């Protein structure tokens, strides 16, 4: 099980030292975690993910080049055509879907061949960063073999829930756990000790 720490802004070097598998940087100006500046050097072993909301392909490509992004995470209403253009250019694509109890999984089908991962987040007023989890049992109806990221308000108190989920059939294609706001002292400033404890506890439990 891989770990993604998203919403990086103020202390990426400290987070890098924890060696997550992915680090996410938000390029949506309305977000309090919006990154607009120099990004410190980060090991290429940790994949850099750029988070966008309805940005143009040109804007995305500019950020990919400027920040050395290896994947892009599309949080808006981006059509499959945009995903395909990026994927054809050799950029990893994560397409995000907001999930609620009545989520219609048929909307995934047009994206099946044009992205590398799905990311399931809690459907809320904002495109991500809403701070609360959706009912993961909805994923019992997951119809695809596409690997996905599990996101949406995941915090320390969810470790037992994550472990239960990971032993259920619907977790078969869960590629990574994505954490953000529940591990912050303020938007974009990660609580390193809390992240360290979360990662250690998960690794210890999963290695049993």
TrEMBL record:
Which residue intervals define the domain N-(5'phosphoribosyl) anthranilate isomerase (PRAI) in the entry?
Answer: 19-199
A molecular function (GO) held by this record is: isomerase activity
Q: Which CDD domains match?
A: PRAI
Cite the entry's keywords alphabetically. Amino-acid biosynthesis, Aromatic amino acid biosynthesis, Isomerase, Tryptophan biosynthesis
**Keyword Amino-acid biosynthesis set for record:** yes
Pathway(s)? Amino-acid biosynthesis; L-tryptophan biosynthesis; L-tryptophan from chorismate: step 3/5
**Which Gene3D superfamilies does the record cross-reference, listed alphabetically?**
Aldolase class I
**Keyword Isomerase applies:** yes
Q: Which reaction does it catalyse?
A: N-(5-phospho-beta-D-ribosyl)anthranilate = 1-(2-carboxyphenylamino)-1-deoxy-D-ribulose 5-phosphate
This enzyme's EC code(s) = 5.3.1.24
Q: Which family does the similarity line name? A: Belongs to the TrpF family.
- What is the protein name stated in its UniProt record? N-(5'-phosphoribosyl)anthranilate isomerase
